[in-house]
Specification:
Elements lengths: L6 H9 L8 E2 H8 L4 H9 L12 E2 L12 H6 L13 H4 L6 H6 L5 H4 L2
Helix pairs in contact: 1-2, 1-3, 2-3
The structure holds a DNA duplex.
DNA sequence: CTTCTGACGAAAT
DNA sequence: CATTTCGCCAGAA
């Protein structure tokens, strides 16, 4: 039997696909990975360390707000070109990530069904 | 081994 | 709009 990537590793794989200047949400990542809840994505991000090369700052909540008030998350995103409004929210229509390509999903063992039902 | 705790989201109330 | 409920990974003590 094959021991594939752990749940957290799968979550990191997806987040690493988010390009600079774009953001994704916990809910979006959970749907792409397919087998995890948004909460588990939060758990995974909490375990991220600098050496993992995971662009954790590009993951915001469904309201378009940063998850870590008081951190440099907002500044890091602004440095990539992401704009925040007066309420500290990001316009997901403009900066939201479209998601990985079907080819990437299939090449990495992810299910593409989430894409069909969007 | 057990218990605790953390970067969320959607629906119901 | 505020609050509650459930979902159930991984590391530390």
């Amino acid at each position: 039997m094959t021991t594939g990537p752990s749940v957290n590793e799968r979550i990191y794989m997806v987040i690493r696909q988010v390009p600079p200047g774009k953001v994704t949400t916990y809910g979006q990542v959970s749907k792409i990975v397919g087998t995890v809840s948004a909460r588990q994505v939060g758990y995974a991000l909490a375990a991220v360390r600098e050496a993992m090369n995971v662009p954790w700052q590009r993951v915001v909540n469904s309201q378009g707000k940063v998850s870590l008030p008081g951190s440099d998350q907002q500044h890091m995103l602004e440095a990539e070109g992401v704009v925040f409004d007066a309420q500290g929210r990001i316009d997901l229509k403009r900066f939201g990530w479209s998601g990985p390509e079907d080819a990437w999903l299939e090449a990495n063992g992810f299910d593409v069904t989430w894409f069909w039902s969007r």
